[in-house]
Design a protein that fits this description.
The chain has 377 residues and is an all-alpha fold. The chain is built from 20 helices and no strands. It is elongated and about 105 Å long.
Length: 377
């Protein structure tokens, strides 16, 4: 190697089956220092066209480059090895590395496009290998390249496609918004390549990113459906963020979108409203907005719970006593407990009187008589 006789050095390595460390220290390191990685790749391809014999050296080289953080050199080597699955993973790393906003992620979209191309090429190669049953050698070679099932490759390609759509949308939102401020956080913005908790963050970010909820709801809904996320968790988190920003009109728009999504249950909107009311500022400024929000609840029991959260005890009591006595009793009891907690003596007396009257009435009601069996004749 010192005498620029790389070909003889490689022939010696391959014929003597030298350890990986000898290749890394004696060949790879000098090539990297002198910018001769391309020359090394050319000679390896000449001496070992299938790269099967030298594959262990190449894999060790990739591991070394990854440990040292030399990802661009790693990517060059993965492309040379035609290891498309690992090359796609490296591209995804390039997409997310060192960015702090979706403005920056938007500028890195080319890496996602490239990752998708690598996976598509891999898929085509796999399909070609399966159809060409006569070429037995081809199906057994390339053992050093990372394998992945066709269904997993398709799933990853769908994730990349959806991430591209999310990136385009949020990049547009962040660049066009006059109120957008640079992120104070130095952490990478959430993407669909992380765990479920991060995907939930992406769905919320998309839902809240547009000019209104409707603009981003469709993409957010696709994220929820594609990754089978707990939809209510996403809606509750989005609703609470809107309430903290006092965007009550947007909360009502969220409820409309959820109701029209076709997958929400009757109780889902009530759960969102109760969660929003629970964290809202209960001061006089927001009283009217909260009242409008509470009126959106479908279930009378949930409406009563919401009224109790904002200390509207009279409204809660009037709703409770209109219900059937068996349902009304526990709810009036809840109103009484809240009245005791806030020191409302008037409502305490009213609740106690109602409970006392209905307790006495229940005692006076005679037990139902057993019906005799009809004569069989």
């Amino acid at each position: 190697m010192r005498h620029d006789n790389m070909k003889d050095a490689l022939q010696h390595l391959l014929s003597k089956e030298c350890p990986e460390e000898v290749f890394l220290e004696g060949v790879l390191q000098p090539c990297l220092e002198r910018g001769r990685l391309g020359m090394l790749q050319g000679l390896l391809e000449t001496l070992d066209p299938g790269l099967e014999v030298c594959s262990r050296y190449l894999l060790s080289s990739c591991q070394l480059l990854q440990r040292r953080g030399h990802f661009h050199t790693l990517y060059q080597l993965q492309q040379f090895m035609m290891d498309h699955v690992r090359a796609a993973m490296t591209c995804i790393r390039f997409f997310t590395h060192g960015v702090v906003s979706y403005v920056q992620l938007g500028d890195q979209r080319r890496w996602l496009v490239r990752a998708k191309e690598h996976l598509r090429t891999y898929l085509q190669e796999q399909q070609g290998t399966r159809t060409n049953s006569t070429n037995r050698k081809k199906s057994t070679s390339n053992s050093f390249r990372k394998k992945m099932s066709s269904s997993d490759v398709s799933r990853h390609m769908n994730t990349i496609e959806l991430q591209l759509e999310v990136t385009r949308f949020l990049h547009h939102c962040e660049t066009s918004s006059s109120t957008a401020t640079p992120s104070a956080s130095s952490s990478t913005p959430p993407t669909l390549f992380g765990p479920s908790a991060m995907k939930i963050d992406v769905a919320c970010k998309v839902m809240l990113g547009g000019k209104n909820i409707e603009e981003g709801f469709g993409i957010a809904y696709r994220v929820i459906q594609d990754f089978q996320l707990e939809a209510l968790t996403v809606y509750v988190r989005a609703g609470q963020r809107l309430v903290r920003q006092r965007q009550y009109r947007a909360v009502r728009q969220l409820l409309k979108c959820v109701g029209e999504s076709g997958t929400a249950t009757k109780n889902d909107c009530d759960v969102i409203i109760l969660s929003c009311v629970s964290i809202a500022d209960k001061g006089p400024t927001d009283a009217k907005e909260l009242e409008c929000l509470i009126l959106e609840t479908k279930s009378t029991e949930n409406k009563i719970k919401a009224y109790l959260q904002v200390s509207k005890l009279r409204a809660a009591y009037l709703l409770a006593v209109k219900l059937d006595t068996t349902k009304a009793g526990p709810l009036v009891q809840e109103v009484l407990q809240t009245a005791e907690a806030v020191g409302d003596s008037v409502m305490q007396d009213i609740c106690c009187q109602w409970l006392s009257e209905h307790k006495d009435r229940d005692r006076k009601t005679p037990p139902p008589t057993k019906q005799g069996r009809p004569n069989a004749k």
